[in-house]
Amino acid sequence: MPGELASRLQPIVAEAVTAAGFDLDSFEVQQAGRRQLVKVVVDADDGIGLDEVAEVSRKVAAALDENEHVLASAYTLEVTSPGLDRPLTEQRHWRRARFRLVKVTPAEGDAFVGRVGHAGADAARILVGSELRDVRYAHVAKAVVEIEFKQPPAEDLKLLENDASGTIGAETEKGSK
């Protein structure tokens, strides 16, 4: 039942989130006793703050109330932003992680840590040590942002900024090791 309900509610919620100017990162409906728990995770290129989460929450609640016939029961709405531990699974996640340190576990080979540069349609440019690598999303088993407690080296940021146009996909893929 929650899966079927989620498939009917997802377009309603996605429209409300998009109308508020944000991206629907994930959506889930769970049974919580007699109520439905509607979990909505939203994001934006510049991140999302508490005020924006509250705004999206009001818009999603209004959309759900307008479509109460779809829910047909009481619900609890939970709207949040993705945490730092969210895996980078889509190009927009990589784009939003620009200049951040990430741990990449390739489908084949050893995991490595690098700083994200330009994120293209099929691959991201990553600075690993002093080497720029093109890492195809399709060859990544898992990637997550690493928490940093100090400012990244200015020379790394400058190198990635200067490489912003990148040649992702134009060279042999060094990042699939």
Task: Describe, in plain words, how this protein is organized in 3D.
The chain is of the alpha+beta class and 177 residues long. The protein folds into 2 domains: 2-80, 2-Layer Sandwich (Alpha-Beta Plaits), CATH 3.30.70; 91-162, SH3 type barrels. It contains 5 helices and 8 strands, in the order αββααβαβββββα. It has helices at residues 2-19, 50-66, 68-71, 91-96, 154-162, and strands spanning 23-32, 35-43, 75-80, 101-106, 112-119, 123-128, 131-136, 140-145. The strands form 2 sheets. It has a 5-stranded antiparallel β-sheet with strand order 7-6-5-4-8. Strand 5 (112-119) and strand 6 (123-128) form a beta hairpin. Helix 1 (2-19) packs across helix 2. The longest helix is centred in the first third of the chain and has 18 residues, at 2-19. The protein is elongated and about 55 Å long.
